[in-house]
Amino acid sequence: MLLDGILDKIGFNDEQKAEYEKYKALAGEQIERLAHAYMKEDLPFMSADEKMGEMADEAIHKYTLKLLFLLECTGYVYEKYQEAGLSDKIFYDTMKDIKYKLDECVDVHGIFGDFTPDWFDGFFKLKRFAFGRLQFDITAHKGESVNVAGREVNEGDFIVKCHIPSSGPLFHEECMKSYKAVYDFVKSELKDDILPIECHSWLLFPNYQGFFGENSNTKKFAEDYTVFDVYETDIFWDKWRIFGKDAESDPLPQKTILQRNFAEYVTKGKPFGYGKGIFLFNGEKIIK
User: Fold this and answer.
1) Considering the entire predicted model, what is its pTM?
2) What dihedral do alpha carbons 167, 169, 172, 173 form, nearest 10°?
3) HEC string for 42-64
């Protein structure tokens, strides 16, 4: 059930709206039934994704079907927001990720669609929300205890986990507004009015820190977090985030300083990966 006016609200341009209408005419009824089964009949998200793979053909790509599916879920998700007493602002800020993922899919694959697997399940089950520039899972700390700013964060403790949508510059003041907004949203759940905020991202991988400019927004973001765990891999999973559609080209493009730094790093045979970071927030500032 497509929410009326949602395409305009989340930023689709006229060309994208025309593309939507074209593909909706091809598969709209099937996708609507699938969205209803997922939102109302407890069909698992990945089962819906598999069915879209079976539906795909030369006329319509699986990624395009996935985008149609996400949009057809928005009416049902809006109903859930209303039942939960959540604001329209949070709803539309959160649903904008559909547009962000569309832009990524066009940039990386040249396809009008979405290539993430079950990412939106958290949004649609009201476990993941956007607050301004950033997105957050409402969740619990997993794994070993972490000591940050003299406080232990233990397995099962309430936290929010930060995600960074590809929606533009990562201005630090906008990030702070997001931290304050999510703090207010979950304040009733907090112990001693302190919110642990975690982030698991390639932006926190120690080997990459020298690649970000000294006064860059990315560096300021990363410096907020105390890295407590590092994951290394031989596969550069995040290459597409830096090089877009040219991620598999040889040589890699070097149009920006960041691309030049990563292109050089790729040739050195060093590990790739991400870091897990955390900080404590008291509603106004980060506790150092």
Assistant:
1) 0.95
2) -70
3) CCCHHHHHHHHHHHCECCECHHH
